[in-house]
Amino acid sequence: MHNGKWLTAASVAALIVFAQREHSQSRREWNALLDICRSAQDACALGPDGRYVRSDAEQLYQRSRAFDRRANRWLLGAQAGLLATTALFIIDLHPGEGPENIPFGPVQVGMRIPF
Predict the structure, then answer these.
(1) What residues have CB less than 8 Å from 98, skipping those under 6 apart?
(2) Looking at the 3D structure of the chain, how many domains does it have?
(3) 68 and which of 8, 26, 35, 80 could share a cystine (Cβ 3.0–4.6 Å)?
(4) Closest CA to 106 of 114, 115, 96
(5) Domain residues for 72?
(6) For residue 4, which of 77, 92, 83 has the smallest C-alpha distance?
(7) CA–CA gap between residue 42 and residue 53 (Å, rounded)
(8) Do residues 80 and 60 make contact, with C-beta atoms less than 8 angstroms apart?
(9) 8 A C-beta contact, residue 46 and residue 87
């Protein structure tokens, strides 16, 4: 339990790095698409089916979407890993015992309000 929480925490960090790489790829493809769109007024015209008329623009758009979908999957995995890490941290707590590095015991604070 004690070492498992650190393993899942490291895996969360790795999944976030993978998601960031996929998102960067998506941004590169999207910026290339924007360059095409800025090159001519009708360069990014849409056909009746909602796709770009130019095949290179449609390819860039589809690749950008694919990279974004992959980034989303990596982030979902990271979120699941974060939940698992949190659960492992909670399970690893020792009830009734505080951490060794805190010299004072827990203090109960309360307040009474007379009616």
Answers:
(1) 105, 106
(2) 1
(3) 26
(4) 96
(5) 2-92
(6) 92
(7) 9
(8) no
(9) no
- As a whole number of Å, the end-to-end CA separation of the chain is 49
| Average pLDDT, rounded, for the chain | 88
- The angle formed by the CA atoms of residues 36, 37 and 41, to the nearest 5 degrees, is 120
Tokens 């009830």 correspond to what residue? 95
When pLDDT is cut at 50, 70 and 90, the band that residue 104 belongs to is low
The answer to whether residue 32 is domain-embedded is yes
Query: Burial level of 71, CB count in 10 A (0-12/13-18/19+)?
Result: buried
Which residue type is seen at 11? S
pLDDT digits (tens, 9 = 90+) for 54-88: 999 999 999 999 999 999 999 999 999 999 999 88
Q: For residue 107, is it within any domain? A: no
